[in-house]
Design brief:
Strand order of the largest sheet: 6-3-4-7-10
Number of helices: 6
CATH class: Alpha Beta
Radius of gyration: 15 Å
CATH architecture: Alpha-Beta Complex
CATH superfamily: YbaK/aminoacyl-tRNA synthetase-associated domain
Order of helices and strands: EHEHEEEHEHEHEEHEE
Number of domains: 1
Structural class: alpha+beta
């Protein structure tokens, strides 16, 4: 199989390679998702595009876990934005979650709560109760590279499929220009 974007040596329907995915991701992948094999040492966006093609920066999305706090209660959510942008945590996220303070969740929390590896967190297979906030530009992409739940491997998924994931809420302005 050939991946619809990028020039990866190995590409497979994700449903046929579940053993390479983090457990919650393996349980949630669908037929529209493609798994490409990548070097785990190059999972972070800058290293990934340097190794697999600068054009993939425009065709990738990053998923981050945020923690919102209000009255002693913490709400966890995931945010998915294009790799060329950053999450508007103190604006769009804070307002949408209705919290006084929002910040990136600590690594231990993100990894522990998702069951995924840091550097590979993906919107596929997130805890069911979490909101998944997706920038509207993600939905418009024909295909995007996202994490696979592990540092090794990436998923290639149509933007419309991401918008249909459980808990997904599409928001304008979630991704803002990177500083």
């Amino acid at each position: 199989m050939r991946a619809p974007i990028g020039s990866f040596e190995e590409a497979h329907p994700a449903t046929e390679r579940r053993e390479l995915l983090a457990a919650p991701v393996a349980a949630a992948v669908t037929d529209e998702m493609i798994l490409v094999d990548t070097d785990p040492a190059k999972a972070d966006t800058a290293d990934f595009v340097a190794a697999y093609g600068q054009d993939l920066l425009e065709r990738s999305a990053n998923c981050v876990v945020v923690a919102g706090k209000r009255a002693g209660e913490t709400t966890l959510a995931a945010c998915l934005v294009l790799s060329t942008t950053r999450v508007d945590v103190n604006g769009v996220v804070r307002r949408h979650l209705g919290v006084r303070k929002a910040s990136f969740a600590p690594m231990e929390t993100a990894v522990g709560e998702t069951g995924m590896e840091y550097g590979g967190i993906t919107p596929v297979g997130l805890p069911a109760a979490w909101p998944l906030l997706i920038d509207s530009a993600v939905v418009d992409a024909p295909h995007l590279v996202i994490g696979s739940g592990a540092r090794r491997g990436k998923l290639i998924v149509p933007g419309k499929v991401l918008a249909a994931l459980p808990g997904a809420v599409v928001l304008d302005g979630l991704g803002i220009p990177a500083a």
